[in-house]
Each structure stands twice: as structure tokens, then as C-alpha cells.
Amino acid sequence: MRNVIAVYVENKYGVLTRVAGLIMRRGFNIDTLTVGETENPDYSRITITMQGDEYSRTQIINQLKKLHNVRQVQLLESGDSVERELLLVKVKNSAATRSEVMTAADVYRGKIIDYSTDAIMIEVTGEPNKIQAFIDVLRPLGILEMCRTGIVALQRGSAALAKQA
Amino acid sequence: MTQRKKRLSGAQILIETLIEQGVTDVFGYPGGTVLDIYDALFRAKRRIRHILTAHEQGAAHAADGYARSTGKVGVVIATSGPGATNLVTGIATAMLDSVPMVAITGNVATSMIGRDSFQEVDITGVTVPITKHNFFVTDVRSLADTVREAFQIAKEGRPGPVLIDIPKDVQQALCVFTAAKEQPLSQKERVDDTVLDKAAALIAKAQKPYLYIGGGALGCELGKQIVALAEKIDAVIGCSFMGLSAVPTDEPRFLGMQGMHGRFASTAASRQADLILAVGVRFSDRATGSLERIQTRPTVIQLDIDLAELGKNVPLDLGIQGDLHVLFPRLCARVKPAKHPEWMRQVQHLREKETADLLAAERLQESELSPRSIFEIINAYTDETTVFATDVGQHQMWTAQFAALRTPHSLVSSGGLGTMGYGLGAAIGACIGTKKKTVLLTGDGSFGMNLTELATAVTEKLPLVIVLFNNRTLGMVHQLQHLFYQKRFAGTSLFARKTDFVKLAQAFGAKGVRVETLAQFETAFKSAMQSKTPVLLDLQIDPQTPVLPMLPQDESIDNIITTMTE
């Protein structure tokens, strides 16, 4: 089962290492991990997606709560939260594939952000499934390189981790 | 005229803050990047005592032993690089057993960090997995509050070690120091009455209750309340290794340590019980083995300060997180009295079998120096003021099985990490912290690891009695090889070593006595207990004496090993 966990942390030296190290040490595998500043510059927000059953999910949340720099940990349930991921992907630019690349980008609401005689770079945001579907479409057209940010997610409604921290 | 506030160096601020936090003794070893700290210590020597050890590892274990025996935070200081890495085993030992400790390391100046400078090591990076938290101080203005926070973290909730790494330039920088008072720990308690009622209802249903207590129960000094609860609900009490000394060993309802090398009655009762009430204990694999082997699964209730421990190692019927100081009395007040005569009879049979097995196993041994008879003498000449320390191995398990532990914190020993070489440093720390007669039980293997701390014991003129169970063998591993590796004794025979521990003790300036019979031991131990300086008793025991009973990992209680022969 895929779990999305939001971790609200003090924006201090080494916090990311502590969080990532803890998950590794306890034998869990991270699918994606993103980190960035929050509305309060003293805090950062780490979003982790990982595979695991209820036992490992509970364990990791409880272990994360013990870290001194961690202020709040929340499991984001898919029905109750919004997830997004950003993809930058570079594909070959050739007469044979160009129109198909452009159509795909259009359908997936992608933006062409760089264009040269031999390559096209596209930016797409969306839920992970959509990103994956877009990549599957582009793959036969010749992906040169790509970069996914991993998932960021927020709970729906007015609830906020900062309020609870 | 306005008075100008005095500016102190970072090193002085550190020492002032330590004193403010109630620290009276620190263990350590000097070096290039802690020169300023040592200078500040020297200048404050009337207010804070520094104990120089022979090796930083010994200093870390001493701080740990000091903390375990006194309940105070143990403090250790080491220089950068090798000084800092030598603390690692000591810090990990404290981490696994939840011992409050503050380790202070020097580091190269901030301008030299990251350049592989002389004696530079990223000790905060190294110790992330083995500390509760650690700090790298880059600004002298945050130093005092960092030290205060470190002590708070070390003590609060589930205690543990905290490391503070202070670069040399931060120690030298000047800053105004504002004194503060030591902050009392807040007791957060939010457990709902309905949860406690649910626990009381589960307890009321039990016919065969077993109270399983660990380091958390010891740390909160719940011994008397545990016994009172056991009497109220007609339960028996067993403990993990870390729970030893929480309840006096002569308490009638106390069955002793359970687990791989636990007392038979305790281990068996824990597997026959229909309710296990676990108090401040984490169901470590060594203690619990495989609960899947139990035919009818008991109801398990676990109380712990650490949320992550609830259900970590065994599935629970009810887990309650909270400060046991508050939580446990609240639960006890809700529990109804009960009587379980059938269960008491069942436990009595287990106790009888335990004694019979023990005597049967002893009869197979040729030497009169059986662990039980050795401890009969030790118990006769020690009292409630004695502190016991151990190393790791067979002697440690014999201590757990046979030593009369009469008061809380009267045993100082490495449980979770199982650190051979822990004992001497820890005994020194305990002796200095409690100012009481300290008996170190050790083995020739463990003692060989950090025996250099004899120098510290002699320097400090400590009333330390070292009972060295000398079997010329790494006995615990040897026993495992005997049972599970068809007697292929790889690397466990020390017979080729020619170490003369009596002469060794003398070389360090301590007394040394060789003991080969029980009568000699009694005379020597009695006399050693009168000594005001360190005495080592080299006790020549039979290398074939095993630790029994033994419940191999993942075996059911029916397959417990109670005798071993050649």
C-alpha cells in the first residue's frame, strides 16, 4: 500500500538527513521525498511517499514523531487530500514525431518550456498517475532525459499542520 | 552607574551551564580541540569535578554507569576526531538502554570544518542514529541554551544520550552569559479515563495475570506500586533484563528475569499467562522470543512513555502511551481486587521445577565453583547499599539470575547493545556517583577489552571489588557453538593467552588475589569488601559451566534447554 506522509519540521541544519536516515534505518523504502519552505520560514515541510502495511506506516509515523526537530506528522488519506507532482521531460525533436509530441503535451496540459532543433522540453503537473501515463505516451517517441519532483500534498479544507505543531 | 555584564568564553559558558544544570562530576579525556574546555574546568575545579579516564570509551561508560546508578544525567567530554569516535560505543550503549547522557566533543574551528583537518570528524553525522538528538554549535550566543536544551532532551520522556559538538573557535569566542535555573520536567498526561477503564476491564477478565516490567518501570521507581498491584490482582511479576532491581529479588511474587537466559519460572509463566500487563518494557527479542509459539495467545496490555514502542514487537490488545509516574497509579486505582489460587499453584509448580532443574544441571558440573554458590557468598557479604556492575556474557546472565538486587538501580549493565568492555568504566562511574561499595562482575573476555581503566580506579582510590569469572573462554559464544555449531569452537578459546590477572592488577597498583575454591572465594570476597581501594579476584571457574536454562530463539517453552553435558 502506498502511503503519503507529511512531516512538518524545524528548518534547521541536518533535519532532512535525520528524517531520511531514520526511515532507512528502520528498514523502510522511500518512493518519493520532497522538501521545501512553508508559510513560516522557520519550518519546512517534507512529503514522503512509501510502500508499507498498516504496521510499518504506524511505526514510521511514531518514530518520526520522536525526532526532536519534527513538530508534526500526518498521514494524508487520498480521499481527503490533494497530491501533485511536477515533471520536466526532454524528448527528441524530429519531423516524424514532432506532431505526436505536441499533441500529447496538449492533451496532458503540458507546457513546452524549451524548444531546439533536436529537442523539446515539456513541463507537466498533475497527480502521479497522470504523470506516469504521460511518460508512457512519450517513451516510444524517444525520451532524452526526465526529472520528477516527487509528490507534494496538502489536506483539503482549513486544517493546517502548523496550527497543530 | 550601570554595571557592565561580564563576557565569558564559550568554554566558560559551557562549564557555567553544566554547573547550572546540577552537574557535579564529568568524565573525560583532554585533547587539542578541548583545551579551552579543560582550561575552564581547571579554573572551576572547586565547583565541578573532572575524572580523567584512560580511554574515551571508558569515560563514556563511566558517564553511563554514573547516570544509571544515580538517576542524574551523566556527562562525558572528549576531543575531536578519535576522541569523539571513541565515544561511539558508549553513546550507543546508552541509547539502547535509554540512559540520560550528555556527550560533549570539541571540533576543529568552523573555518577548518569540511577540509579533512587534523583530527576532524563529522561526529554529529556519525552519531545521528545513536543519539536522541545532537547539536553542532556554530555560534557562541546559542551555546548556553543549546546545553540547556540538551539536558532537557536527555531527561524528558524516554531518556537517552545527546551529543553537543563545539568547534574550537566557538569555545574561544566571548559572549555575555545570563544564568538560568534548571528547568523542571513537565509531566504531560492526557490519557482518557475510558482507556484506563478498558484496561481495568481486561485485567478483571484475567485468570492468570503476569506483570511484565522493564527499564521504564525501574526508571520511574514503580517497584512498590507494582508489588501492590500484583497483590491486589493476585498476579506474578517478571521482568526484562533492564527491569532488574525495580522489584527486590526476594519479593515473593517476583519470578525474576524472563527470556533466553531468564529464570525458568518467569519465562514459563509468561507463556502460560492469559494476561500480560507490560509496564515500561519493549518486548525485546532476547526477552520475549517468539510469541507465535504460544498456543493460546494472552491478552497483552502495554504501557509506555514511547508511543513508537506500543505494538512494535508484539501485537497488542491495548496500548497506552503516557508518563508512567502518573499513568500507573491511575490504572492501579481502577483495578478491582481478585484471587487466582489455581494460577498461584501452577506458578508454584514452575518454581519447583526451576529449582530441580538447577540442581540437576549443577550435579553435572565437576567444579564446586558453581555460579549459584558463588552468588550465595556474594549475596551474603553485600547489602542494600551495594551497587553491582557487570560486563557482558555468561557472568552477566548469572548475575541476572542469582544476584540479590535489593534496591532500585543497584544493577548497572549493558542490556540492549550488549557491550563487552562496558563493566569497568561503568563500575567506576557508579562508584563515583553513589560513593558506595561497587562490585563489578566480569569475565576474562569482557575485562580484557577495557581493563586499562584499572588505572582510573586506582587513581581515584575507589572501593571497587572486581570479581573476574575467569574461564579462559568466551563462554557465551562458546556455549552457542557447543549447542548449534557442533562444537566447532571458532575463536572462543583463550587458553593460549597467558594473562596473569593478579599480576596485572598489581601492575596497575590494585590488589589482586587468585581464587580456586569456594572457601578461598569466601575469605577473599569478605576481605575485599572491607578494602577501600580496588581489589581484583581472579576466580578460576570451569570453562564448561553453561548458562542455564536456555530458551533458543524461536523455540517454544517445551524445548527449553535445562542441562548440558560434554
Briefly summarize what is shown:
Chain A is α+β, with helices and mostly antiparallel strands. Helix content of chain A is 32%, strand content 41%.
Key words describing this protein structure:
heterodimer; A: 165 residues; alpha+beta; Alpha-Beta Plaits; 2 domains; five-stranded antiparallel sheet; four-stranded antiparallel sheet; 5 helices; 9 strands; B: 566 residues; alpha/beta; Rossmann fold; 3 domains; six-stranded parallel sheet; 23 helices; 17% strand; globular
Describe this structure in words.
The complex is a heterodimer of chains A (165) and B (566). Chain A has 165 residues and is α+β, with helices and mostly antiparallel strands. Chain A folds into two domains: 2-76, Alpha-Beta Plaits, CATH 3.30.70; 82-148, Alpha-Beta Plaits. Helices cover 32% and strands 41% of the residues of chain A. In chain A, strand 6 and strand 7 (119-126) form a beta hairpin. The relative contact order of chain A is 0.21. In chain B, helix 13 (285-288) links the parallel strand 12 and strand 13 (299-304). In chain B, helix 3 (56-70) runs parallel beside helix 5 and helix 12 (264-272) runs antiparallel to helix 15. Chain B folds into three domains: 7-176, 3-Layer(aba) Sandwich (Rossmann fold), CATH 3.40.50; 193-349, TPP-binding domain (Rossmann fold, 3-Layer(aba) Sandwich); 366-544, Rossmann fold. Helices cover 39% and strands 17% of the residues of chain B. Chain B starts with 6 loop residues before the first strand and ends in a 26-residue tail after the last strand. Chain B has a six-stranded parallel beta sheet with strand order 3-2-4-5-7-6, sandwiched between helices. In chain B, strands 11-10-9-12-13-14 form a six-stranded parallel beta sheet, with helices on both faces. Chains A and B meet through helix 1 and helix 2 of A and loops of B.
